[in-house]
């Protein structure tokens, strides 16, 4: 039985003096697909960024694969197997597509780039283009492909579908599911399209003003109309 | 005709010397995005070390050059660790403030330790004297500087564009936290690049000392020249810097021959013209 | 049909890659058009060409009959052509109120004024609060943009565009990054727009597209491959294959 | 919920203008108080204080384009020097010695230089822009050097004299008149600038600083606004230059030098860009510090200045005033 | 009483060496003559002015007068700095003793100015005769494009044409020139037999002299003439062999052979730390202090600028540079100008060897201006 890929205990974090997250605890079993939901500005991005070591942490511990990484800088966490696809995409604008991917390789041979091109043929066509010349969707593909190339054991995805065409979204969600199943990869997904997220995930947590407000299975959440209405504000929409 | 050739040779030599001295700045400014006004100060430190090694200790020129590069890098390590690391990614003007402060300190210390006089670096006999080009003679050390310039340009270009170190460096500069999130140890990458830039500064300071002699005020006296050639070339671009140095060297030299009293006008008008045509420098990386 | 907005034979290529390939399109007042298409099809480029952020290789852009191809980006805005950005472009150090106020003052031609503070101009402030509360971000009025979440920035981006009171509004993925709970606000804001305003919206969220659009234009590889009603677009085989995928089969209550 | 928040926002919105008006007045009073303290603290050193005011005007003018518009320039002394020469030439060559007329000449000279600088400098972005400004200041400097029959070349323009102000207040060795004159000019300029930076135009400029493309997409022309600001900036620098010419009665090439440009930028960043008090406090602190250490050790004071700059970046990265203001704001927020 | 002397000079920055020499000269004088004149103790207050900056100069002078209550102002390396101070002298009731600034006209700006250094006209005029005597009739003049450079050019031209020679071309080059190869090419192409040059001391001198050698001008027999700023002693170690044989005219050489100079050099070298750093501003400062001491003596320590200046008009003494006097009319120093040649000493160091003396030279610059 391998160690738990990701454990978070009593995490508080924020920006400068503003605290955004407050006492968050959860753990994710191996190969799990966890959806992180919440309304606008509730701290989803902050949570993932804190896990990746990019915001200020005030309190709490983070363990990856059993090892305490709380004090580690971002780069060391990445080397421990954490992969992060930020909401802002963070393409390296002056690098070509190929060079962007190259940074994500983490020392794997260059031939591995083909994996990324296999996933997104569009990127192969554009591989000599500079990052800042890509279309919005192409940037999103690049950002995701770049992180997956490093074969992370825990993958943090912050709205990876944003700006992608519906066909691509479907293919991508299928690919993520595949990775979680065969690639022994644990995935945390933040997504605005609640249905897509619930279809994909096997666990759900919901954030409300920086606190963990709900945790359970997708099915339980779908059934809990009150919670959906209160926490996600979409009850009346469907 | 002979005069034209002669001027061309002078221009080439002058441009290459400029290139050797300022290329390190192109690395810090274009690749690391630090407006490093203290570049000249590091070149000066190199010059002082070489002068001390060659003149006062009587070591050979080659040893002096190596001592200068290594010594300057060693001096620069704590400076990078405690000062520069604080301004990576900071607003440009903050960097200006910090690096000017560093320059002032280095000038003050150099003045105190070595006194305000000029320091020379004795050349080995092989580099002394002049070489006959047929239609004129040219100082051998200038030929040496041209060769050094070409070697540095080639090596640096390869390192930046073709090695994984280069890719990681450029990625770290574009977005340090994202690079870190992908497992790049940005601090080490930065420290290494800074060391390379400072080493190049020291090397340039020594090789160019015949043209720009070493004295405490060196750090400020040539600051503008370095800044101009690097920016006109497009910071971070090795070929750009090379072309800018040759072009500006050529214009400066020709202007100074034809109308010395308007030498400055020629040079700076050319700078304005080039930037108006190429607003990001000759080979500017788009941001 | 009297078109407020018309492009004719627009072409643009980047180093050999034809991104916009002979595109012609016109919109009448009151049009609600959705521009969809695969990633990299050239939608954003089209907007950039139309607004003057890029210069086309050939072709013309006309606003209310006047050719504006040679007019700068700001000149086109003055003539009523306003856009939002796909990736938010806001002033990080300025507050939400300042953004909207600036747009209002610019619309009124008052940004040249060197005296007086907008906070003391009740007409401006009222409009600012009204707009921001329509989009549900009034509580962020005096927060700097770099302190608010991305989804909220997206809403502000739309508020700025609306404050300019355009005649033709181009929205580049307005709902991207906005949580489902808040897309309703955007829809509401769009619905509240003056009826004679022509709106072109780029969007990948098909639910939103089908609720909003009365006409759908599909761009693929720089060429318009479909221009028709929302009902027809799901039936078009090429569009289904290139773009919609299984969405076309799913039931959507439009 | 939105409605509730809206009323909250409405309250704070209506509360703001009063506070800002109050703060404007308080700003002017603060300057006056500091000026009076300076007068009593350094009664024998009014020449230095007057010079600080002249340079402060240059730094304020630089703040307009750098702090508020984001134009990085190392050539701003061109505006100052042009003002100084305009005022100086009026007196030395045309015998017009009225200080107020000389100040007007300075304003005009500075504004024209601002226009020229704007036309050239605004053609570049980022580093190339910085280099354009460097090229420009060298051209101005060379030009003044060459036009020595007008400017006195490197020997400086001497032969300037200034009549008593309003025919009554004479410029004396102790510098009382000069100092009061300087403070009055500074106050007028400060109040005007305060209005401008808070006006819609000022807001537009701050927007341009952050993203000129976005401003275009809002229908405004960044270039036109920047040019306007450059001319205003030139007029302000010109006041400083004229003040310098009137009170020292010589104008040297140094007033058109790269060194002065760079120093003024250092002072601005030291105090904090993007706020008028930042520029003022940076100038006062830098020049007093420099005066103190260079008198204490005329030989090795540069090291001390360097250390000060480094310390400021390390401990007050937003500049002395900027960091202090941020600190108090945070305290206030925490308190609320 | 304590009598304060305010000295303004470049004690830091690119000209720090010259300022250091000011201080060395003053220290040497006070070491030899004590710090007392009668009952009065002399105290020197230094203020740093790193580069030409008249506004700052005036502010410093004002501060020295008003706050520090100095009775004498002295020093001043650059002309515009000195010029800026002249308007306040009368009201401040302080004499100004210039220890370097070398433009002729300064003394005309106020009757309270006395100069103990030299003028560029004074040092550049005799070299014309030297050139003529060496059989050179066509000379090209190359100077830095600033006040002193222009002075040097005019002085040389006037004197050389009077000798019957011809200045075939007069080039002014920017102060910031680093690479002199194109200038050397110009010199070659001009067909002149000799070159007259003036550059401010410092790194550019080194570049110029090296370029002269390396571009084969020396080998081609083109003679080199200059006033002594070009071969100031502190630059000689850097110039090295390149400078050998260069002839310059100047008012002072550290090697001057006289008991007064021996004592001076010993004291000044001690003050500055190393004899190698000693050069001409030191002697200007030394004699400046001498003049100030005489002034204090004459006024008995009372502040009376007019009387003080009156007292030193016509004053004659033997300076380390040789016999000198203050011209009563111009208040400028009359002195010998020496022709010197850069020579290698037995111990391997380089020095300016005096080979000819032009006695009792006044300032031709003032006459030329009239
Ligand atoms: N740099 C920052 N400084 C201060 N506060 C911030 C900063 N970034 C975000 N916040 C605040 O933190 C809270 C949470 O932001 P976060 O980006 O984590 O939300 P989110 O759940 O990802 O929202 P969205 O769905 O819009 O992406 C928001 O209220 C936001 O205003
Ligand atoms: N400056 C440029 N240089 C080269 N190629 C470019 C440039 N700008 C855009 N492109 C290319 O043009 C194509 C169209 O880009 P555009 O941004 O218009 O796509 P889009 O339809 O908006 O896509 P998305 O839905 O992903 O936002 C892309 O493939 C992009 O890589
Ligand atoms: Mg988010
Ligand atoms: Mg797009």
From TrEMBL, chain A:
KW Transport (keyword) present: yes
Residue stretches making up the ABC transporter domain: 6-234
Domain of life: Bacteria
Pfam families for the chain: ABC_tran (PF00005)
Keyword line: Amino-acid transport, ATP-binding, Nucleotide-binding, Transport
UniProt record similarity statement: Belongs to the ABC transporter superfamily.
GO molecular function term, any single one: ATP hydrolysis activity
SUPFAM superfamilies assigned to the protein according to its UniProt record, in alphabetical order: P-loop containing nucleoside triphosphate hydrolases
GO BP of this protein: L-amino acid transport
Transport among keywords: yes
Protein name: ABC transporter ATP-binding protein
Coiled-coil positions: none
TrEMBL record, chain B:
InterPro entries: ABC_transp_permease, BCAA_transport_permease
Gene Ontology CC annotations of this record: plasma membrane
UniProt main location, coarse: membrane
Superkingdom assignment: Bacteria
Subcellular localization: Cell membrane
Mode of membrane association: Multi-pass membrane protein
Transmembrane annotation, as ranges: 6-27, 34-53, 59-84, 96-114, 143-160, 188-212, 224-250, 262-282
GO BP: amino acid transport
GO molecular function, a single term: transmembrane transporter activity
UniProt keyword list: Amino-acid transport, Cell membrane, Membrane, Transmembrane, Transmembrane helix, Transport
UniProt record similarity statement: Belongs to the binding-protein-dependent transport system permease family. LivHM subfamily.
Alphabetized PANTHER family for the sequence: ABC TRANSPORTER ATP-BINDING PROTEIN, BRANCHED-CHAIN AMINO ACID TRANSPORT SYSTEM PERMEASE PROTEIN LIVH
Stated name of the protein: ABC transporter permease
Organism annotation: Rhizobium altiplani
Automatic annotation (TrEMBL), chain C:
Nucleotide-binding found in the keyword field: yes
Keywords: ATP-binding, Nucleotide-binding, Transport
Entry's Gene Ontology molecular function annotations: ATP binding; ATP hydrolysis activity
Pfam families, sorted: ABC_tran, BCA_ABC_TP_C
Residue ranges annotated for the ABC transporter domain, each copy included: 5-246
GO cellular component, one term: plasma membrane
Family listed: Belongs to the ABC transporter superfamily.
Full protein name: ABC transporter ATP-binding protein
Lineage, broadest ranks: Bacteria, Pseudomonadati, Pseudomonadota, Alphaproteobacteria, Hyphomicrobiales
From TrEMBL, chain D:
Sorted UniProt keywords: Cell membrane, Membrane, Transmembrane, Transmembrane helix
Annotated GO CC locations: plasma membrane
Coiled-coil residues: none
Keyword Transmembrane helix belongs to the record: yes
Compartments where found: Cell membrane
Entry annotated with the keyword Lipid metabolism: no
GO MF, any single term: branched-chain amino acid transmembrane transporter activity
InterPro entries: ABC_transp_permease (IPR001851), LivM-like (IPR043428)
Protein name: Branched-chain amino acid ABC transporter permease
């Amino acid at each position: 039985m391998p160690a738990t890929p990701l454990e978070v205990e009593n995490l508080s974090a924020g920006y400068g003096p503003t605290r955004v997250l407050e006492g968050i605890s959860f753990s994710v079993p191996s190969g799990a697909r966890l959806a992180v939901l919440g309304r606008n500005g509730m701290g989803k991005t902050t949570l993932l960024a804190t896990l990746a070591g990019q915001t200020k942490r005030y309190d709490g511990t983070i363990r990856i694969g059993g090892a305490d990484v709380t004090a580690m800088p971002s780069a060391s966490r990445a080397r421990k197997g954490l992969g992060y696809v930020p909401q802002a995409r963070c393409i390296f604008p002056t690098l070509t597509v190929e060079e962007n991917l190259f940074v994500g390789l983490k020392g794997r041979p260059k031939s591995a780039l083909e994996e990324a091109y296999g996933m997104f043929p569009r990127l192969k066509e554009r591989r000599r283009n500079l990052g800042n010349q890509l279309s919005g969707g192409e940037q999103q593909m690049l950002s995701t492909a770049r992180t997956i190339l490093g074969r992370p054991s825990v993958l943090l995805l912050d709205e990876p579908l944003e700006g992608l065409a519906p066909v691509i979204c479907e293919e991508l969600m299928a690919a993520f599911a595949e990775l979680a199943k065969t690639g022994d990869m644990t995935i945390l997904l933040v997504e605005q399209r609640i249905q897509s997220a619930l279809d994909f995930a096997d666990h759900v947590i919901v954030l409300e003003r920086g606190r963990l407000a709900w945790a359970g299975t997708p099915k339980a959440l779908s059934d809990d109309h009150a919670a959906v209405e209160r926490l996600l504000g979409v009850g009346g929409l469907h | 005709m002979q005069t034209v050739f002669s001027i061309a040779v002078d221009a080439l030599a002058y441009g290459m010397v400029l290139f050797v001295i300022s290329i390190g700045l192109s690395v810090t400014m274009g690749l690391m995005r630090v407006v490093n006004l203290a570049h000249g100060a590091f070149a000066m430190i190199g010059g002082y070390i070489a002068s001390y090694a060659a003149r006062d200790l009587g070591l050979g020129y080659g040893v002096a050059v190596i001592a200068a590069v290594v010594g300057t890098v060693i001096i620069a390590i704590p400076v990078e660790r405690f000062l520069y690391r604080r301004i990576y990614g900071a607003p440009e003007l903050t960097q200006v403030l910090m690096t000017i402060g560093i320059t002032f300190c280095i000038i003050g210390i150099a003045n105190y330790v070595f006194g305000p006089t000029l320091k020379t670096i004795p050349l080995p006999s092989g580099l002394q004297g002049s070489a006959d080009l047929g239609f004129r003679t040219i100082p051998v050390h200038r030929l040496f500087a041209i060769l050094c310039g070409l070697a540095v340009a080639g090596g640096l270009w390869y390192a930046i564009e073709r090695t994984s170190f280069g890719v990681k460096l450029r990625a770290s500069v574009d977005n340090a936290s994202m690079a870190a999130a992908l497992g790049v140890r940005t601090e080490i990458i930065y420290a290494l690049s800074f060391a390379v830039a400072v080493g190049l500064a020291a090397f340039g300071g020594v090789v160019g000392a015949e043209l720009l002699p070493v004295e405490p005020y060196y750090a400020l006296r040539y600051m503008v020249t370095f800044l101009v050639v690097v920016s006109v070339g497009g910071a971070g671009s090795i070929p750009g810097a090379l072309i800018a140095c040759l072009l500006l060297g050529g214009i400066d030299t020709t202007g100074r021959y034809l109308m010395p009293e308007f030498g400055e006008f020629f040079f700076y008008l050319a700078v304005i013209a080039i930037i108006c045509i190429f607003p990001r420098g000759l080979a500017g990386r788009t941001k | 049909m009297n078109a407020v907005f018309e492009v004719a034979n627009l072409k643009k290529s980047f180093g050999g890659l034809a991104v916009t390939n002979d595109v012609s399109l016109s919109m009448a007042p009151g049009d609600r058009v959705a521009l969809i298409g695969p990633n990299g099809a050239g939608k954003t480029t089209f907007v950039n060409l139309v607004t003057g952020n890029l210069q086309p290789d050939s072709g013309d852009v006309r606003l209310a009959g006047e050719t504006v191809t040679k007019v700068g980006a700001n000149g086109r805005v003055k003539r009523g052509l306003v856009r939002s950005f796909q990736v938010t472009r806001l002033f990080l150090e300025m507050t939400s109120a300042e953004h909207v106020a600036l747009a209002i003052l610019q619309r009124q031609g008052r940004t040249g004024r060197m005296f007086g503070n907008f906070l003391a101009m009740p007409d401006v402030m009222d409009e600012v609060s009204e707009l921001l509360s329509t989009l549900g971000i009034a509580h962020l009025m005096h927060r700097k943009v770099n302190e608010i979440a991305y989804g909220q920035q997206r809403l502000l981006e739309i508020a700025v565009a609306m404050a300019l009171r355009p005649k033709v509004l181009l929205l580049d993925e307005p709902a991207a990054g906005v949580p489902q709970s808040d897309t309703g606000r955007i829809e509401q804001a769009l619905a509240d727009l003056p009826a004679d305003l022509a709106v072109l919206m780029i969007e990948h969220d098909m639910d939103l597209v089908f609720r909003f659009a009365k006409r759908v234009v599909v761009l693929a590889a720089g060429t318009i491959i479909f221009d028709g009603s929302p009902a027809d677009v799901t039936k078009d085989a090429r569009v289904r294959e290139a773009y919609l995928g299984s969405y076309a089969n799913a039931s959507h209550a439009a | 919920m939105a409605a509730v928040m809206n009323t909250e926002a409405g309250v704070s919105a209506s509360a703001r203008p009063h506070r800002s008006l109050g703060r404007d007045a308080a700003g002017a009073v603060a300057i006056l108080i500091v000026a009076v303290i300076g007068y009593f603290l350094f009664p024998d050193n009014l020449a230095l204080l007057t010079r600080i005011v002249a340079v402060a005007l240059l730094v304020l003018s630089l703040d307009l384009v750098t702090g508020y518009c984001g134009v990085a320039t190392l050539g701003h002394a061109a505006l100052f020097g042009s003002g100084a020469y305009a005022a100086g030439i009026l007196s030395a060559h045309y015998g017009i010695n009225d200080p107020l007329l000389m100040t007007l000449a300075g304003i005009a000279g500075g504004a024209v230089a601002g226009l020229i600088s704007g036309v050239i400098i605004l053609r570049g972005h980022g580093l190339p822009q910085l280099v354009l400004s460097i090229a420009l200041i060298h051209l101005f400097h060379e030009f003044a050097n060459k036009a020595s029959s007008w400017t006195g070349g490197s020997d400086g323009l001497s032969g300037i004299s200034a009549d008593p102000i309003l025919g009554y207040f004479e410029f004396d060795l102790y510098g009382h008149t000069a100092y009061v004159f300087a403070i009055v000019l500074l106050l007028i300029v400060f109040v005007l600038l305060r209005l401008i930076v808070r006006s819609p135009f000022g807001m537009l400029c701050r927007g341009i600083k952050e993203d000129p493309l976005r401003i275009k997409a809002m229908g405004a022309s960044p270039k036109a606004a920047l040019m306007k600001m450059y001319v205003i900036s030139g007029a302000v620098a010109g006041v400083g230059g004229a003040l310098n010419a009137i009170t020292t009665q010589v104008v040297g090439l140094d007033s058109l030098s790269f060194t002065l440009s760079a120093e003024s930028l250092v002072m601005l960043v030291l105090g904090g860009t993007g706020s008028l008090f930042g520029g003022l406090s940076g100038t006062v602190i830098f020049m007093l510090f420099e005066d103190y250490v260079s008198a204490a050790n005329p030989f090795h004071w540069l090291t001390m200045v360097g250390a000060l700059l480094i310390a400021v970046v390390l401990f007050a990265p937003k500049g002395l005033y900027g960091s202090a203001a941020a600190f108090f704001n945070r305290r206030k927020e925490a308190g609320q | 009483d304590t009598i304060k002397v305010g000295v303004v000079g470049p004690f830091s920055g690119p000209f720090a060496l010259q300022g250091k020499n000011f201080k060395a000269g003053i220290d040497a004088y006070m070491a030899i003559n004590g710090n007392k004149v009668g009952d009065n103790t002399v105290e020197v207050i230094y203020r740093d002015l790193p580069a030409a900056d008249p506004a700052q100069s005036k502010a410093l002078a004002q501060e020295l007068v008003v706050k520090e209550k100095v009775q004498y102002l002295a020093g001043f390396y650059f002309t515009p700095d000195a010029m800026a101070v002249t308007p306040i002298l009368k009201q401040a009731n302080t004499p100004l003793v210039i220890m370097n600034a070398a433009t002729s006209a300064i003394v005309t700006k106020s009757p309270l100015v006395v100069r103990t250094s030299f003028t560029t006209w004074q040092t550049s005029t005799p070299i014309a005769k030297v050139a003529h005597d060496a059989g050179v009739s066509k000379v090209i003049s190359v100077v830095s494009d600033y006040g002193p450079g222009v002075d040097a050019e005019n002085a040389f031209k006037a004197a050389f044409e009077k000798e019957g020679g011809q200045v075939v071309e007069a080039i002014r080059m920017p102060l910031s020139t680093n690479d002199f190869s194109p200038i050397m090419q110009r010199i070659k192409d001009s067909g002149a037999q000799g070159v007259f040059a003036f550059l401010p001391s410092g790194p550019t001198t080194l570049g110029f002299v090296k370029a002269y050698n390396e571009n084969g001008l020396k080998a081609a027999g083109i003679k080199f003439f200059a006033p002594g700023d070009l071969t100031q002693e502190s630059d000689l170690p850097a110039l090295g062999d390149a400078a050998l044989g260069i002839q310059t005219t100047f008012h002072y050489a550290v090697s001057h052979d006289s008991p007064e100079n021996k004592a001076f050099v010993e004291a000044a070298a001690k003050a500055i730390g190393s004899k190698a750093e000693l050069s001409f501003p030191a002697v200007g400062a030394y004699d400046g202090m001498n003049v100030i001491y005489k002034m204090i003596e004459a006024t008995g320590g009372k502040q009376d600028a007019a009387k003080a200046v009156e007292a030193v008009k016509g004053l004659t003494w033997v300076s380390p540079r040789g016999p000198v006097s203050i011209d009563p009319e111009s208040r400028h120093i009359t002195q010998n100008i020496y022709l010197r040649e850069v020579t290698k000493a037995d111990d391997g160091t380089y020095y300016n060897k005096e080979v000819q003396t032009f006695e009792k030279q006044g300032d031709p610059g003032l006459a030329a201006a009239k």
